[in-house]
Amino acid sequence: MRLLFLGDMVGRSGRVAVQERLPGLIADHGIDFTIVNGENAAGGFGITEAILNDTLSAGADVVTTGNHVWDQREALVFADRQTRFLRPANYPKGTPGHGMGVYEAKNGARVMVSNIMGRVFMAPDLDDPFACAEAQLADGGLGAAFDAVVFDFHAEATSEKMCFGHFVDGRASLVVGTHTHTPTADHQVLSGGTAYLSDAGMCGDYDSSLGMDKEEPLNRFLNKIPKGRFEAATGAATICGVVVEISDRTGLAERVAPLRIGPRLEETSPDWW
Ligand code: FE2
Asked: Mean pLDDT score of the chain, rounded to an integer?
């Protein structure tokens, strides 16, 4: 099966790009399952239910999040009823919403998707992400309960991301990092068969600071006194993500390649699709 993951969709610019391009990508390239990280979709801060529904309507099967998940307070309410919406699984017991789910792909495969947040240089400081993954995989995992397993590991530190990848290597189809909004070039199939990428990058305007208008972030570095609020940048977005070909037999990755479409970064797409 073919799986597409798109990195953090930032603001209107990111949303427009995803909504315009995703249906065509899915149709043209026979994508069986699509995940979009949406934690910055509402002006850079969280996601509303209307945006979530628009993203699902555009073709996303699951929308993941991270540290900004509750920035729009309505998420605390809709997280319980929206089963295709994931918040980090390692929040304390009793937190609204779902940290993982099992979904049917277009080809009939059972895809487990988990959203876990790292702890290095991250706030809030959540439960142990490694123990969280271990518990999620305890019921058989790949080849037994699930035909594919994907982790969106939302974290700052590449060391924590890589170690998490190695921790579940051979037990997941894909581990993809999110949160830094900067795509890394280390896509690979790990020795145990798990596709890995430290960060997918963002779907947003790269003429910015991480998708936000660059003026105020720069001001805070220079002057240390806020002048205004962070606002999402409004230029055309570049779509960033990763595509994985997953074995129908083993659930492990056969090929992995980055995807970048848009005006700012050098475009790339799998040469095998
Ligand atoms: Fe984040």
From this structure: 97
